Amino acid sequence: MGIAASTIWLGLAAPAIAAQATEGAAPSLLPITATATAPDLRDAAPRAGQDLPQLAGEPEVSEDIAPSAPVTAPESAAAETSAAEPARLKLTVGIRARLDVRFDDARPAGDPYTSTHLSFDTLILTLNYDSPTLFGAAEYRFYGGNFIYSRANGYDGYLGEVSFPSFAYAGVKLTPQDKVTVGFQSVPFDERYWGSSWYNTLGFVYGLEEVYNVGISASHSDGPLDLTAGYFPTTGPAGFGISRDSARYSVNIVRADPYVPDATDNTERDMFVGRIRYRLATSSEGALTLAGSAWASRVRNYDTDCEGSRRAYAISLRDTRRPLQLRLLAARQAINPRNPGRDDLIAVGDYDSSYNIAARGTMLLGEVGRNVDTGAFPFTVNLYGSYTHMLKDDAGFADTQRINLGAYWNDKASQRIKIWSEFLIGRNDPYVGAGQFVSGAAQGGDDRWKTSFLIMAGYFF
């Protein structure tokens, strides 16, 4: 057993959230097999009476389906080893800084202006273990001491004031085709990351993309077919912060904070989630993959003591066989929260802040990406653009939309320097523009297009 060198991260991020990347990180749409990038900090929620900042998420481990290396288990941060390789333990220590540019920010009095922020972001500790039969990973994150978790937003302003686990799981490789994973892990609803953006997509906003919960999952691969199913009796644990229930890494149904209008008081239990993927065609460059997913759970309301439900379904098609890579996805979510008041919305939260989402709606996503031949230029460049639209069932709710145009840069010599640059255009998007955070994903904000830009750069060794 050997201990790999520690990894230290430095990042710059924009309008809402920052991200971490481990070795081989790259946008998830692109056919790179050993990728890893992680959602980072979102804006912490201000106290009542203040404008809520935008939040955002970003990938942590991307899963790519290549003919030679199909994904066969719940996505794990530990790389799969062959029976001939020894067990490996790897410790990663990450430090990030961030740059935020918000073109549609607002002062406390409501005056619009463009704000720019450069600050420290997060400290990340990650431990990965892999052997021919066993694997596991755990991660913990420390936030605070930056402009997001500031005194103006109710914080004391020191590193570690907000902290929480990202994941912690262990598993066994029963055969080369079968794995079982137990613990705080990724929920197998479509791919872990629905697109290449460092911010993830609107699927993240609505608690469907890159969700981590506590339970057991099993996976089986047989040629072009890949099956994964899991039972999650409870959500991931909340960590430390000043929110009521939202010091979390991924978006969960939560007990809302007092500043959230029509604040709901719910939790999710007994989640059954399954995914089936089938490679329709393969080439030396990648695969054409069709995937379908389903999610069923109980949603308990603490005020009424009644049991509601959550039902979600998704179907996606991804093509990584050509220089121009494509992804299409449609997802349907229907939550019956059994609230004492209105049932057309429900509170969710993460990164120590909570907000409302529409309880029922249909999401459509399209993304295109391309690897650029840069010749003698010292960086590889992957370009991507996506559009996501959440069509809400309630006629009085304004739809939420997001356009993302971005580029991912990675140095050719060592692959230790990684840079994301993204331009976001959002409408009723909690992560883009002032005044959208609390209700943008539910009733809607001011129903106007807002813009922001981010640059996130990282170095690790």
Describe the structure.
The protein is mainly beta and 461 residues long. The chain has one helix at 202-205, and strands at 2-4, 19-21, 37-39, 88-106, 112-130, 134-143, 162-175, 178-186, 212-222, 225-235, 252-253, 266-282, 287-301, 307-319, 324-336, 345-350, 353-358, 360-372, 379-392, 400-411, 417-427, 449-459. Strand 5 (112-130) and strand 6 (134-143) form a beta hairpin.
Roughly how many Å apart are the termini?
20 Å
Shape: globular
Number of strands: 22
Gyration radius, in Å: 20 Å
The percentage helix is under 10%
Low-pLDDT windows of residues: 1-83
Mean pLDDT: 83
Range of strand content:
over 45%
Give me the strand/helix succession.
Answer: EEEEEEEEHEEEEEEEEEEEEEE
- The secondary structure category is mainly beta
Number of H/I helices: 1
- Main β-sheet, in a few words? 16 strands, antiparallel, barrel
Quick take:
The chain is mostly beta strands. The protein has one helix at 202-205, and strands spanning 2-4, 19-21, 37-39, 88-106, 112-130, 134-143, 162-175, 178-186, 212-222, 225-235, 252-253, 266-282, 287-301, 307-319, 324-336, 345-350, 353-358, 360-372, 379-392, 400-411, 417-427, 449-459. The strands form 3 sheets. It has a 16-stranded antiparallel barrel with strand order 4-5-6-7-8-9-10-12-13-14-15-18-19-20-21-22.
